[in-house]
Design a protein that fits this description.
TIM Barrel; alpha/beta; binds ligand C2E; Alpha-Beta Plaits; 17% strand; single chain; 4 domains; binds calcium ion
């Protein structure tokens, strides 16, 4: 645009010069025709004015050169202004870190693309990085920036010519593809992007690994306009994340429905917490090899008036995302402490807490407030956290962990073996207990490799002075093996499924039953 203006201005200057020259030529012709120059010649020779005319000519020449110089300077200044304008425009339209288009530029580009390709296939890809945050947290922002720049470079290489790539913010990228032949071709591009972004990235002496999940929206398929396309691609991406990351999904209308259902559940959950519809269920934990009941893990259940008993997977993520998890969790602990008041005083309670709760500076105080309110002793309480709680802010985690342990509360690392850097966290933080994830426990009797791995975990835990619980024990085969390996505690359907308070009361009265593969069915409550 700026260069167009410049060409126009140059042409008009040239036109002005031509006009002036034409006027001069016309004056000269008229002078010849009227014989004015002859008279002028005679006068000049008669009066000896030739030197004066020469002087005038040189002065005129000087004036012309001066004006030419001025005009050149003016043009240079204009050029500089135009380029500064273009640069300013580029800054407002590009991401400063990666140099890709920014959101504004992308939206304009997509809107223009949709207008051009109205009846064809204009395609928007929303690319969300997987596992980027842990890299930022563990290796620092310089590593994070380098990863983002590498992603931008790889996107440029792998996207077909004519694509528009953008960074929308954080670890979210987008691309508009040129018209391609059908969904298969688009799917191939998406697979290419995922493969390119999943390749390791070298940083100092480490190899960093991220991944990508992609949502795809096509123009014409109930989507028109950039914002609508981005929203649709976002829904598809969200679905991809739910289905297991590192994958891509095309937008479908049903995804919008699902989101509406989620919004409804979210508003119902608010009311449910206030109405006390979220109740603690209890799953027995037994000592090994004695198989005696030592306490219960508290597991949240939503007793929904229309939909029956809802499992944590259906509402805990919503509570976490909307910030309701704190309120839900303290309420659950309050109920559990009251329920446990009537049980023998050696029985313990284990409470699951969400990662962001552990980052809350007031978390330990809030727990203490509930313990004081219900009179439940701190040494009977255990808090279970998963590794995702640790990667957010190690220092905040350490502070909460120490405050809780100072109160006498024990801390267990849950789902051990499923996180991405378990050993690092075991070195950095002082836990009391490890809970071996049930994905390992289930496969002990199926694979020798798995059995060796669980054996190694148990040895590692005991060498660090940690107590070990095996989760998800379903068969007496696994149980016998775990007892043989010296695992301290066991939990699983073999001893009992999560159960309501009245069922837990009965369980406490009856003591831990003789373990059998059928025990789960008898005690199943949820
Ligand atoms: P988790 O902490 O790993 O809890 C154990 C889960 O495994 C429970 O699922 C339990 O029912 C299930 N389980 C136990 N034994 C067996 C077994 O032998 N076989 C099989 N297949 N499953 C077994 P549940 O109750 O659906 O809870 C799922 C997850 O939801 C929990 O995993 C925990 O991470 C989370 N959760 C539950 N209650 C709360 C809560 O109050 N707050 C938070 N933040 N998370 C919670
Ligand atoms: Ca747990
Ligand atoms: Ca677990």
């Amino acid at each position: 645009m700026a260069s167009g203006k410049r060409v126009g201005r140059g042409a008009s200057e040239f036109y002005d010069l031509l006009c002036l020259m034409m006027i001069g030529v016309c004056g000269w012709l008229a002078g010849i025709q009227l014989g004015a120059f002859r008279t002028l010649d005679t006068i000049m020779i008669d009066h000896g004015l030739t030197e004066l005319v020469m002087l005038g000519c040189f002065v005129g020449l000087g004036a012309i050169v001066a004006s030419l110089h001025k005009s050149l300077r003016l043009r240079r200044a204009l050029r500089e202004r135009d380029s500064a304008e273009a640069q300013a425009l580029s800054v407002t339209r590009h991401d400063a870190l990666t140099g890709l288009a920014n959101r504004r530029c992308f939206v304009e580009g997509v809107d223009a693309g949709f207008r051009r390709e109205a009846e064809k296939t204009a395609t928007v890809l929303l690319i969300d990085l997987d596992r980027f945050k842990p890299i930022n947290d563990l290796y620092g922002h310089a590593a994070g920036d380098m990863v983002l720049c590498t992603v931008a470079e790889r996107l440029k290489q792998v996207l077909p010519p004519g694509s528009l790539a953008a960074r929308l913010g954080g670890d979210e990228f987008a691309a508009m593809l040129p018209p391609l032949a059908g969904r298969e071709a688009i799917a191939r591009v998406a697979q290419g992007v995922i493969a390119a972004l999943s390749a390791p990235i070298s940083w100092q002496k480490s190899e960093l690994k991220i991944g990508a999940t992609i949502g795809i929206a096509l123009a014409g398929e109930s989507v028109s306009g950039a914002e609508a396309a981005l929203h649709a691609a976002d829904l598809a991406m969200y679905q991809g994340k739910k289905d297991g990351r590192g994958t891509f999904r095309f937008f479908e209308n049903a995804m919008g429905e699902e989101l509406r259902a989620r919004a409804l559940l979210e508003s119902e959950l608010r009311g449910a917490i206030l109405a006390g519809q979220i109740e603690p269920f209890y799953q027995p934990v037994v000592s090994l090899p004695g198989r005696e009941l030592i306490g219960f893990e508290v597991l949240a259940r939503w007793l929904h008036p229309e939909r029956g008993v809802l499992l944590p997977s259906e509402f805990i993520p919503i509570a976490e995302e909307t910030g309701m998890i704190g309120e839900l969790s303290y309420d659950l602990l309050r109920q559990a402490c009251r329920d446990a008041a009537a049980w023998p005083s050696h029985l313990q309670l284990a409470l699951n807490v969400a990662p962001q709760q552990f980052q809350d500076h007031w978390f330990a105080e809030q727990i203490l407030a509930v313990l004081n309110e219900t009179g439940f002793p701190a040494h009977r309480l255990e808090i279970e956290i998963t590794e995702s709680a640790l990667i957010q802010d190690l220092e905040a985690t350490r502070a909460t962990l120490t405050s809780l342990q100072n109160l006498g509360v024990r801390i267990a690392l849950d789902d051990f073996g499923t996180g991405y850097s378990s050993l690092y966290h075991l070195r950095e933080l002082k836990f009391d207990k490890l809970k071996i994830d049930r994905s390992y426990v289930n496969s002990i009797t199926m694979s020798d490799e798995r059995a060796k791995l669980v054996d190694a975990i148990i040895k590692l835990g005991s060498s660090l002075g940690l107590v070990m619980t095996a989760e998800g024990i379903e068969t007496s085969g696994s149980l016998d093996w775990l007892e043989g390996q010296g695992c301290d505690f066991g939990q699983g359907y073999l001893f009992g499924k999560p159960m309501s308070k009245p069922e837990a009361d009965m369980y406490v009265e009856g003591g831990a039953p003789e373990a059998s593969d059928g025990a789960a069915a008898g005690r199943a409550a949820a």
